[in-house]
Amino acid sequence: MGLVLSAPSGGGKSTLSRLLLERDTLLTMSVSLTTRPKRHGEEEGQDYYFVSQGEFIRQRDTGDLLEWAEVYGHHYGTPRRLVEALLAQGKDVLFDVDGQGMRQLRVSLQDNMVSIFMMPSTLRELKRRLEGRGVEKTTEMERRISAFSSQLATAEHYDYVVLNDDVETCYKQLHEILNAERKKRIRYHNLKEFIASM
Ligand code: ADP
Ligand code: 5GP
């Protein structure tokens, strides 16, 4: 199953993804390709694969990306091969993508996907968190702040909306959703065989 986690910039995607990956061994992160410059502390292959515009376009045009989008003036995309291999093995894959990515993934993954939007408690707190992260140049920061309302508006297309007020409370809600989704009848592909073998 694919688990898409979205939020406006500074909304807590990295923080909550890190917690989910640390505490849920069944979950694997889909590491995206991006043309944006590497931030201090980010690692190649862990946070992103940092590529040139030319390399991004090459991979996009050869069909190597499951989905891609332009966000805040940079290109981002999901490498297809690993995700398809993990899903074929029945593993769960976590995607940190925006609303455009979520919609493209839904077309590909259909029922085998759940989408969660993390909502900030207030715009003031979201801005405080984004600024507190302190890794963006002023122009990048302004670009992200001016996209807050359009990013928040995409929440209506998601399966779940979770408030990211307190980290642990938010984690608990994400964990509950993930576990309930794992128990959905449609996720059991061998139910008839299992019953017959009882
Ligand atoms: P994103 O990946 O969505 O841009 P981050 O996970 O980097 O967001 O979070 C932005 C900043 O807000 C970070 O400094 C992070 O530690 C902080 N943060 C995230 N969630 C919370 C929370 N619930 N309470 C307080 N600070 C938070
Ligand atoms: P950031 O530059 O802060 O890491 O990410 C900026 C935005 O790009 C975030 O909304 C994030 O979810 C989105 N993003 C990251 N990777 C991808 C991707 O592979 N595809 C899409 N569509 N969006 C992505």
How is this structure best described in words?
The protein is an alpha/beta fold and 198 residues long. It is 44% helix and 21% strand. It has helices spanning 13-23, 53-61, 80-88, 99-109, 123-133, 138-146, 148-153, 167-182, 191-196; strands spanning 2-6, 27-29, 32-34, 48-50, 65-71, 74-79, 92-95, 113-119, 160-163. Strands 2-7-1-8-9 form a five-stranded parallel sheet, sandwiched between helices. The protein has a four-stranded mixed sheet with strand order 4-3-6-5. Helix 1 (13-23) crosses helix 8. The chain is globular and about 65 Å long. The mean pLDDT is 95. Bound molecules: adenosine-5'-diphosphate (ADP) and guanosine-5'-monophosphate. Adenosine-5'-diphosphate is lined by residues 7, 9-15, 129, 132-133, 164, 166-167, 170.
What compounds sit in this structure?
adenosine-5'-diphosphate, guanosine-5'-monophosphate
Query: Would you identify the regions where 5 or more consecutive residues have pLDDT less than 50?
Result: none
Strand order of the largest sheet: 2-7-1-8-9
> How much helix is in the residues?
40-55%
Global mean pLDDT: 95
Indicate the proportion of strand residues.
Answer: 15-25%
* Order of helix and strand elements from N to C terminus: EHEEEHEEHEHEHHHEHH
Number of helices: 9
Query: How many DSSP E strands?
Result: 9
Major beta-sheet overview: 5 strands, parallel
Mass-distribution shape: globular
What's the alpha carbon Rg, rounded to whole Å?
Answer: 17 Å
First and last CA, distance: 26 Å
Structure classification = alpha/beta
